[in-house]
Amino acid sequence: MTSPEAHTLIGAYALDALDEADRARLESHLGDCPGCAAELRELRAVATTMGGAVPMTPPASLRAAVLREIEGTAQLPPRLADRRSRGQRRATFLAIAAGAAAVVAFAALGVVGAETISQRHQLADVRAQAADLETVASEVAAQSARPMAGGGRIAVVSVAGRAFVDVRELPDLPANRVYQLWAASPKGVESAGIVAGNAGRAHRLVTLSKEATAVKVTIEPAGGSKQPTSAVIGSAPLSG
Amino acid sequence: MEYERLRRCLQGLTDLQRESISLAYYSGYTYREVAEMLATPVPTVKTRMRDGLIRLRDCLGVGA
Fold first, then answer.
1. What residues have CB less than 8 Å from A215, skipping those under 6 apart?
2. Which of A82, A94, A137, B12 has the highest count of CB atoms within 10 angstroms of its CB?
């Protein structure tokens, strides 16, 4: 299939970010696209350059510090009507620990922009470490999880415009329904991702607008909606 | 130094271009997964990956 639409897959192809079906579509397009070979060669060269730079993984000491912090952090007390309880100080402490864990997870997950990895084979190590740190961030976040209507829990840790959202114990939905996350602000709500109706649990890294105040959850038709079409079943305020 | 140059060039990308490319290349996600993670339409992520690489190519002066 030759089409401008297939051609735009060439960037993702150079990054090795296509699944089987898309790869086949692009490769068939390459067959009758005279200019493609040169473009692909150049984009591949860029990717190679990205792979030839200096490695960066979060220092082991940082991870150890986060784990120590978590170990010494008490669980939140049960929610009481009076929010100004003695638990508040502990809650602040927890939020800081959660923030630190989330920052580490972001660093490992994104390895964004400034720093890069020297060899593709280091990827496996970094991924394993990122998975570890995601687990840590999930567990820390879960300590402040809030129950959702109809079952499941939601927890959010946010740092500097990015949020780590963890949902778990989600009841299975009918095949044509999904859970959808929303970033809510005084201006309205924006989609923050979809979680499969049978996933049970998931976490997402979400970039938020400055005005965002909470992450909310609704149940939507498969594929998600532009705006919520059903009642909010869960909500968690943004920390930090 | 190659690395300094790459760093500078990456900073010249839009946030969405940089995040899309980083998640795909360094974290190994497919562009569909990246779209879901960034809560951005799939066609947008696809074109940002290409735009971003082209901008990097021009900035780095590679493959010419």
1. A154, A156, A163, A165, A181, A182, A183, A184, A192, A206, A235, A236, A238
2. A137
Give the closest-approach CA distance of B44 to chain A in angstroms.
Answer: 10
Domain containing A219 — which CATH number?
Answer: 2.60.40
Residues B12-60 pLDDT 10s? 899 899 989 988 887 788 899 899 888 889 999 999 999 999 999 999 8
Q: Decide which of A142, A158, A189 is a domain's last residue.
A: A142
Task: List pLDDT tens digits, range A45-88.
Answer: 888 888 765 445 555 666 666 676 666 666 666 555 544 455 55
Is B1 at the interface with chain A, CB within 8 A? no
Residues of the domain holding A43: 4-51
What CATH number is associated with residue B55?
1.10.10.10
CA-closest candidate to residue B29, choices B51, B49, B55: B49
Chain A: nearest CA to B36, how far in angstroms? 6
Most B CBs within 10 Å, among A13, A44, A46, to test the B interface: A46
Q: Cα(A41)–Cα(A179) distance, rounded to whole angstroms?
A: 40
Boundary-marking domain end, from A108, A142, A176: A142
A145-196 pLDDT, tens digit each: 889 988 899 988 887 778 888 899 999 999 899 999 999 988 889 898 888 8
